[in-house]
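Internal QA ticket QA-208
Title: Verify multi-chain structure generation after dependency bump
Assignee: T.L.

Test input:
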Amino acid sequence: MLDDLAQPSGCGPLLPPDSAHVKSMRQQIFEHVRAAGRATRTDVIRALGISAGSATALTADLIAAGLLREVDSIPRETGRGRPAVAIEVVPQTHLVIGIKLSDAVHSAVLTDFAGNTLATASLRTPAGPKPLDVILTEVATLVHDVLDVAGKSTGDIAAVGIGMSGIVDHQAGTVPWSPLLAQRNCDFSTAFQTRFGLPLYLDNDANMLTLAELWFGAGRAKSDFAVVTIEHGVGMGLVIDNRLYRGARGMGLELGHTKVQLDGALCRCGQRGCLEAYLADYALAREAATALHHQPHERQSAHALLDALFTQAKSGNEAAQTIFRRAGRYLAVGLANVVQLFDPALIIISGERMQYDYLYADEVLSEMHRLTLNDGRAPCAVETHAWGDLVWARGATALALSAVTDQAIAAIS
Amino acid sequence: MLDDLAQPSGCGPLLPPDSAHVKSMRQQIFEHVRAAGRATRTDVIRALGISAGSATALTADLIAAGLLREVDSIPRETGRGRPAVAIEVVPQTHLVIGIKLSDAVHSAVLTDFAGNTLATASLRTPAGPKPLDVILTEVATLVHDVLDVAGKSTGDIAAVGIGMSGIVDHQAGTVPWSPLLAQRNCDFSTAFQTRFGLPLYLDNDANMLTLAELWFGAGRAKSDFAVVTIEHGVGMGLVIDNRLYRGARGMGLELGHTKVQLDGALCRCGQRGCLEAYLADYALAREAATALHHQPHERQSAHALLDALFTQAKSGNEAAQTIFRRAGRYLAVGLANVVQLFDPALIIISGERMQYDYLYADEVLSEMHRLTLNDGRAPCAVETHAWGDLVWARGATALALSAVTDQAIAAIS
DNA sequence: TAACATAGTTCAGCACCTGAATTATAATAG
DNA sequence: CTATTATAATTCAGGTGCTGAACTATGTTA
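Actual output:
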C-alpha cells in the first residue's frame, strides 16, 4: 500500500481533558458566595471576571430559586457611592449528614447548605469486622441521633456522605475491602440507599480528611496540596488544581506503604520496609514493650502502651526517646518523598497522634527540609492540625454538599 | 459583637478549578482530527458528543481558515449510505522546531502542524557548563541545519520548543540552574526571542519526555500516567487528566532524589539514600571500578566503564552482576513508591540505559508488583521504551505545537 | 427502480454572556 | 440645600455557540 493511502497515525492526546468539572456561571457564583460566607455582586464580578449584567441576572436566578438571599439586617459598609448589598447562602434549603465509620467510634455531623454544623453525634461500637447490616444499623442510630438533636427528620436530608478506612470505590459506591466489614466486595451504596432512601456518597477516610482541609481548613486557599495522616496506618490525600485527586485505578494513595528501606521493618501488610512499619501505632507499640521492660505476657492496649512510652520519653528514658526519634526521622523521609514527587504548595499533617510531639517537632520539619532539594526556592510549607475526631465526618459532609450543590443548581434552568 | 453580625467564614475551596484548559469546540474538533490522523464529521460527532449541525459549521470554519481539509484522494469505506468524507490537518500551515539540549549532543526536529517529522539534526558539543550566548549559537547551528535539510527558512517557523536538564521555570521561561549553563537565573526565553525573533517554549527534559509519550507514544490513550527516565539522573514526569502536571512550585518531579534508604549511598546532590545514588550511571560506575579490579588511576569515561561492566556481567562475572541486580531492586522500589503515591494507569520507563537489560528484566517488574498493594485489582501496567535520542526533541515539538495550535484556533473567530 | 441507510446541510431558536446606557443611592463640596 | 462625584446595580440590544428537527445528498440492497 502506498504511503499516501495509509491512514496517518496522528499525534496528540487521544482523550480530551475531563471537562465534567466545568461549572456553570450560576454555580461558580453560588460557590463563591458560599466560600466567602457573604459577598456583594461587585465582589462576584471581580472574583469571577464576569460582567455586571451577568451578575445581576444570575444572582436573581439563584435568589428566585431560593438558594441565595440578600442580607439586609447587616449595617452596610460606609463609603461613597451606592452601598453594596451582600448576598449569602440560604442555609436551610438543603441539609446533609456526614459520617465517619471507624474501628471504635463512629461519628456524624449534620450540616446545612452554608456549611454550618447543626448537630453532631458519636457512637462507641465493638471493634472488628462486622456484617454490612450491623454497620448499617449503627449508621441508622447515628443518623437518628443527629436528626434528634437538631429536631429534623430523614425527609429533611438531601444526601449522606460516608468515609471509612479500607479500599473504597468512590465511583461505584462499593467497598472491595475494609477492616470494618466482614464481607469483601460489599455493595455498600446500594444497600444504604434501599434502607434509607437517601443518596449516598462514599469514599475512603484519607480522602474525607483531605476534603475537610479543602472545604474548611488550611487547604482552602491552595490549589495543590497533600494531606498526611498518621493513625493506625499512614494515609494520604492529594488535591490537584483545587480538586481531590483519586488516582487512575481508584486505589488510595498509600503513603504508608511506600518503601523507605529495602528489607526493612515488617509491616502489617506483610511486606518489609513500608513507612507505616516505622510510624504507625503498632510499630511504636512493638518496640515500646522492649523499652518499658514489659514481659511478653503483659498485654495491654496499644494506646495505653504508647501513652506509657511517651511519659517515659518525656521523663528522660533514652530507650523510649529513640523510638520516637526514629519514627520522627522516618516521617521526615516520607514527607520529603512526597515533596520530591509532587512538589505541593503545602503539606498538612493531621491526626490523633498529634499529641506525641516528638513526631511533630521542629526537628522533624528541618530534617524534612534537609532531605529535599530546594534550589533557592521557598521550601514546601508544612502545617500540623490537631483537629478533633469530627474532622472526618465534616469532610464527609463536604462530599455530600458538593454533590447536592451540583444537583440543586442544575435544577434551576 | 453579636453572632449574626459577624461575617460568616464560609466553606468550600476559595479558588475555582483552573478553567484555562477548557478548549473551544473548534479546537476540540481540530485536536481530535489531528489525534486520529483522519476523521469524518460523524467520527467527530460521536467522539465529542456534539450535534451534526455544529460539526458541519465548525469544520467549515476550520477548513475556511485553512487548518483542515477534506481528503478526497482516498478510496472511501464501502458500506450502505452516503460515503463519509474524511477530514485531515493541513500539515504545512504551521511548522515548529523542537530542540533537546544536553551535555554532549544537542538534537533538533522540524515538525509540521500534523505532527510529521520533516527533518532532524544533531550537534556534538563539548560538555560542561557554557555561557548563554555559546548555547544560543549552538541552537542557531541546529536551527539552520534542520531548516536546511527541509528547505525552509526561519520565517516559516511558528515557534520553537526547547527541553533541557536542570531547574527550568516553564512559565517564566527562565533557567534558575542548569548543568549546561555557566550562569544562574538565566533569562533564556528573552535572550532567545531577541536573537531569533521566534516564540520560545521552554521546559525541563523530563517534562519533554513525558510530552513525547503523551503526544506520540503509549501515553496517548491514558489519562493518568507517569514517565520515568534513567540517564545521568533519574527523572519523572506526570500526566494527570491528560495534562502535564508541573507541580505547585515549578520544581521538577525529582524521583531520583526520593529517599529509599536512611543514611544510604551518597548522591551527587550531597545527600544520602537518594534513589539516584543506586541507579544513575555514576552510581554504577563507582562500583564498577571495584568489580573490574581497576586501579584508581585507570580513568575512563563512565560510558565505557558501564559497557565493560555489562559485558562482564553477561559473561558471568558475579561481582558485576550484583551491581546491576542491586540497581534493579532499587528501581523496583522507586517504581513501587510511584505506584503507591499516584496510582497511575501506566508507568513508562524510558531512557538510553535500556540496553542494560538487567534493569528492565521481568525480575524487576515482578519485584515492583510484589512491593505494591494490589488488593485484587489489575496491577499498574509498565512499559519500557527504547526510543532514540530524538524523543526528547519530539517532545519539545509537542510543547511548541500545542501553544501554536491554541493561537491558530483563537485567531479564527 | 423503490426502499433503505448513512452522511452531511440548513436554519430557527435557545442559553449564556458582554457592553453600553441607565438608574439607584450614598458621601462630599460649594 | 443642591450639585457633584463615586460606587452599585439594572436593563437591554446584540453576539456567540450550540442544539434539534427538517431536509438534502449519495451510496447499497431488495
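Spot checks passed. Residues 96 and 158 of chain A are 6 Å apart (CA to CA).
Status: verified.
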